[in-house]
Structures are given as structure tokens and as C-alpha cells.
Amino acid sequence: MTTDRAHLEGEFFMSGDEACAEGAISAGCRFFAGYPITPATEIAERMSDRLPEVGGTYIQMEDELASMAAVLGASWGGVKAMTATSGPGFSLMMENIGLGLMMETPCVVANVQRAGPSTGLPTLVAQGDMMQARWGSHGHYSIIALSPSSPQEVYDHAIKAFNLSERFRLPVLVMTDGAVGHMYEKVVIQPRDKVHIVPRRKPKVPPGEYRPYEPDADLVPPMANSGEGYRFHVTGLTHDERGYPAMDAEAQDKLIRRLVEKVEKYSEEIIEMEEDGIDGAGVVICAYGITARVSLIAMERARSEGISVGMLRLVTVWPFPQKRIAEIARQVKAFVVPEINYGQISLEVERSAGGAAKTILVPHMGGAVHDPQVILEAIRQAAK
Amino acid sequence: MQNYSVYASRLIPKREPFAPGHRACIGCGEALAVRLACKALPQNVIIANATGCMEVVSSQFPMTAWRMPWIHTLFENTAAVASGVESALKVMARKGVRPDTGTKVVAMAGDGGTSDIGIQALSGALERGHDFLYICFDNEAYMNTGIQRSSATPFGASTTTSPAGKMSIGQKTWKKNVPAIAAAHDIPYVATASHSYPFDLMAKVAKGVAMPGPAYIHIHSVCPTGWRSAPDLSVRLGRLAVQTGVFPLYEIENGRYKLSMELPEMKPVQDYLKLQGRFRHLTEDTIREIQQRVVEEYEKIKEKAQ
Q1: CATH code of the domain in which A157 resides
Q2: Same domain for A61 and A158?
Q3: Which listed residue, A198, A239, A321, A371, has the most CB atoms within 10 A of its CB?
């Protein structure tokens, strides 16, 4: 144990929500603006307690619109910033998430998913916001979303999310859920020098030559913070490399292509997944978040029945690992996709498989995790 | 109102439109306030209720405490939903689709749903002049999600997101004056009330709902869970809030202020604060600061009421 309050090295017994706050603080997050909402409130509570002692700022805003907007403002002010919410708040944040994407603002949004639509089941688990994470704001864009399945992974993903947001300059979503958020488990925080932190990419040119939206070779522009002497113009309107509004189809084409491609081009670098026994398997379970853990029981039972079944756990959900799924589809009979919604990621699996293998959805409407037996039934059916 | 100190249960209507058996905490002042307010409403009423404690404790499927038509809205849109209901009733009556039965529309929300996330919808509805009554049940924090500060949380109160400690005295800002904001819309009726003065509360609700145009009533509601106070002290705390001047009772009718209860002698705020765990960390200096502010605010209202 160290006395470094900005990075609590050691072993802890923590909830997923608390781990999210600690991960953010380790990543250098010093600004949190949020609004209480079950089951994400503990992230805000932990931040309100912890940020003052590391010189950070916690603000409780008047709603989620303001929370997300304040996070964008803070990021432009030069601070690593985040917010945390659940379904209803996530819906309210959508317009500002789009603004963040358009202005290329690094920040992190944690969505501790609960069952919806609307108020739904405030205290109970779901994975119903996966497509909203992808397409929730209007217009076309690329997004990065992670899906942790344990408090340890929430901690790690909070850091990863900040790193990705700084690397690619966009809001990164940590799509956890009510079960993982409220689950208490061992969380190991490595020594500070073992934790990789990506700093903000600052302009290398003098202020006079700076064009705020002129990208480097990797399509991502360096970012000056306000007050550093660089003149910039930030807008939600379609803009040119100077940041000035450019109201025509050519400018729109150039900008949107870059916003999409800066992520898609590096999707292999971004995508992380975990594979277990896929080679030679007849059936592969494709799962994420809490459902991946529930699926492990079903997988063990199926294996004990002599069914050859593997597991592909999606750690990154967006961008989607379509290449790998297409590869696996050529080797297996079927994918079994359990998720706590009525079929969202299963559609992506089906699309990526391109007809080479069947996709069997195991839906759950939310409020609880799957009964592993239901997943086992689907595996048996898939193996036939 | 006269005879403030009298509490004669026989004088209160026996009707219970807000039925017992709901799941509010022991000593919940808000449930008491809702119950009293509902007794003062006419039978012919539609309630729009924001997400919050009252929604959660009163409507757990398959049961409900509401013996009247009741819509659970979202958190931020109660006044807007009430606007829609009121407009639809008006339009249907005008077109002869449905007879004008004089149905009243009442919006209910907590302090979070009113002073923070819902203030835009409230302001819009007051400005458009819908004929409805908006009641804010103010328990001074987000109690439903577990005691987070709201803009109605009083200065110095410790909550889970304004925790008192070395770097913080708890809530750093003074309570937002929502009745004054409502009054700034030049609506016909604004009032403050407390569940610990039941006759005054019921008279104000009856007056507000009967008044044509928008009316706003702000009801101080003691929350033993969030205030860290003994459940058997809720009624006493409600009274102390009024008697110390922390929460003065008044009406603003067509712009004219009227104190419902004058305080020839204000009790020290200490009497009110010391019964609540959320203020236990306060130093004498801070309490003096609060005392001074309370007197100033009370004097301002008194001046307006002259």
C-alpha cells in the first residue's frame, strides 16, 4: 500500500462503480460532472469524496444534459473529464455526446446499464443500451465502447477508456451494467509505473501555424487547450481544418469520412477480445459483460456433456470485431449469443458471420442475468 | 389561517385518496404531505407524478396508493406532461368530444424534479399559463437514489455527494428559492406550506387548485432517512423549520406577498439543526452564519408582505 492518494496501489474489495471512479483517478481524471441515477450513483459519490483530495473537481449538475456538456467544457479546458450515468441519463446525454464527437473532445462516459425503456427497472441489470451506444446520437460517426465484466475490469477499462479517448480524440463509452456496477470483488491496483497512461496530444507547431482540425498522419488532430496561446474555433457545425463552419457537401464529406476512418482504420489496434477453446469447436458462445460470466457455467456443462464449445468474449464492443467473427464463422456450426436485451449484438454477429454459420440469440428482457440452463439449451440446439 | 397550533384530526376529511399501506419510510414527512394535499384536492382530478420517492413507494406493481387517475412521468417532464393533459382536456371540451367536467390537473414532483432537472419544463408550463397546480414536495435532496445533494439542499448539509470533511463543510450553496422563481412568472398563486401545519397546507392546496391558471405550492417535507433525524421527530422538525424562520410560510396571490404565520420571536436555528445528523459537523461559526442568513431572508419576505 502506498500513501499516494492519486493512485491507490494495492488490493481492494470494491464494487464495480467504485472501481470505475478509482480507474478514472489513476488515469488522471480530475473532473467529474454528473447527476445521481441508480445504479451509477456510487461512481458520483466516490468521485465527490475522492476528487477534492487529489486536487480535482466534482460538480453535481442539474441534469444529464448539463453533466455531459460540462464534461466537454472541462476537456477543452485541459482536464481529463468524465461522467457516469444509466439508461435515462444516457438518453439525455446523446446530443452532447454527438457534440463531443463533432468537436473531437476526449472524455469518458460510463453507462451502468439498467433495464429500460424509460424508467424501467432502476435497480436491476440489463444490456439494452448497446445499440444506443453505437447509434444513439444523430448523424453518422464511429464510437468506441468497452464492456467490462468484473470490478477489476471496470477499473482497467476506465484507464483504457481515457487512453483511447486521448489517442483518438472522442468520447469513449464504458458500457458496464447494474450487476457489475454493484458487484463487490477483489480489485488489484498495480504500481503506478506499471500503468500505461496516454497524455493529450499537443500541437508541435507554434500558435501562428496551428490549424485546430488539421490531422496528423493517423487522421487525429493535436489538441491545444484553451488558455495556452493557441487560437481555435470549436463548433458543432460542419467545419474545415481551421475549425470554421463550412456549409457544403464537400466539407461534410471530408470531415465525416475522417471522423469515421480515424477509428475504423485502427480498429484492429482498438479491438480486444478473449477467446477460449475456439479452435476445433462446433459452437461458439459470443458474449460480453456480465453475460459472458454467466455463460461460463453453461459452457462447462456443455463440455461435460461432450459438446465442443468455445467462447468469444467481447471486451471492446464498438468497433465490432467483424473480421474475427467472419473467420470463426467459417470454422463453426453456430454462434450462441446470450444478451440481456431482445437481440442487439446478435444482429452484428449474424451480419459478420454472413451466413457461414447460424446465429442463435438467447435473449433476456432484463432485471436478472440468464439462467445458465437456458444458454445450455441453446448450445445443445446449436450443436445438433 | 387561524389556530395554527390546533391539530384536531376530526376536522380533517376522512377521505383517503392517497391510500395507506404504501412503502414510505417510518416518519416520512413527504408521504404525510402528499396525503394531506390529496385530501384537499377535488375528486375530479388527474395527477402527473415525477420519478422520485413518492412514485417508488406508492406504485409498486401490482398495488397502488393512488385512488385517482395517476400518470408516472419521467424525472424532468412532469410540468410538460401536465401541460399536455390540461391542453387535451381543453381541446376535447372545445370540440365537443368530451364534456367539460371541470377536471383539475395536478403535477407533483420532488425538489430534484422541480429545482434541478425539471425547472425548464416547469418554467415553460408556468409561462404558457396552463390551468394546473404544481406541487413540489421538498425533502431537500435526492432521497430516492440515496441522499445526493440537490439545489434545494440547505447550506451546510452533508449528503453523499456533498460530504462533509476536511475539504468541505457539506453543501456549499444556499437553497435555491424556487417559490420566487415561480412567482417571477407572474402566475396567480404561489405558496409555501409544511406538513406540520396541516390545515394551512390543505387550505393552500384547495385554493391553488381552484385558481384559474397556473399555481405553484412548495411543501417542506421532513425526511428522517436523509436528514439523519429520529422518525418520531418529523412533525416537530417541520414545525421548527417554520418557527425558526428556516422555512417561512407565505402566499403570493397575484403578486402580493402575505405571511401565513408571523414570527414575533424566531426560535434559534440551533434548535432545528441540532436534531439532524446532516448538520452535526457544523461549527458554531457556521451556525451563526446560517442564523444570520435566515433572519435576513425572513426580513426580506416580511418586507414584501407589508
Answers
A1: 3.40.50.970
A2: yes
A3: A321
Closest A-chain CA to B117: A63
Closest by Cβ to A52, choosing from B76, B151, B168 = B168
Structural domain includes residue A243:
no
Q: How many Å lie between the alpha carbon of A33 and the closest alpha carbon of chain B?
A: 11
- Rounded Cα gap, residues A309 and A256, in angstroms: 41
Give me the residue from A36, A64, A119 closest to B148, CB to CB. A36
The domain that holds A300 is classified in CATH as 3.40.50.920
Give the strand pairing for A171-177 and A107-115.
parallel
Give the C-alpha separation, B298 to B190, whole Å.
17
Residues A186 and A55 grouped into a single domain: yes
CA distance, residue B238 to nearest chain A CA (Å): 26
Helix axis angle for B78-94 and B119-128, nearest 10°, is 30
Residue A196 inside a domain? The answer is no
Is the distance from CB of A116 to CB of A87 less than 8 angstroms? yes
| Structural domain includes residue A221 | no
Judged by a CB distance cut-off of 8 A, whether residue A43 touches chain B is: no
pTM of the full structure: 0.94
Residue span of the structural domain in which A321 resides: 273-383
Number of domains in chain A: 2
Q: Please give the Cα distance from A245 to A146 (Å, whole number).
A: 32
Q: A28 with A169, same domain? A: yes
Domain termination residue (choose one: A150, A166, A190): A190
**Amino acid at the residue A137:** S
Q: Tell me which of A38, A48, A118 to substitute to probe the interface with B (most B C-beta atoms closer than 10 Å).
A: A48
In a domain, A154, yes or no: yes
**A181 plus A284 within the same structural domain:** no
- The string of pLDDT tens digits covering residues A234-272 is 999 999 999 999 999 999 999 999 999 999 999 999 999
CB A74 within 8 A of CB A81: yes
Residues of A in contact with B145 (CB under 8 A): 36-38, 41
Which member of A36, A53, A92 has the closest CB to residue B167? Answer: A53
Q: Which residues of A touch B78 (CB under 8 A)?
A: none
State what percent of residues in chain B have pLDDT above 70.
98
Q: Please tell me the distance from the alpha carbon of residue A120 to that of residue A87, in angstroms, as a whole number.
A: 9
Interface probe for B, chosen from A119, A121, A123 (most Cβ of B below 10 Å), is: A119
Tell which of A45, A67, A123, A182 to mutate to test the B interface (max B CBs under 10 Å): A45
The count of residues in chain A is 384
Contact between B117 and A35 using a beta-carbon 8 Å cutoff:
yes
Predicted-complex ipTM score: 0.89
Question: In this predicted model, what pLDDT tens digit does every residue of A85-115 receive, in sequence order?
Answer: 999 999 999 999 999 999 999 999 999 999 9
- Residue B5: band (very low, low, confident or very high) from pLDDT cuts 50, 70, 90: low
**Under 8 Å CB-to-CB from A315, ≥6 apart: which residues?**
A146, A147, A148, A153, A272, A273, A274, A288
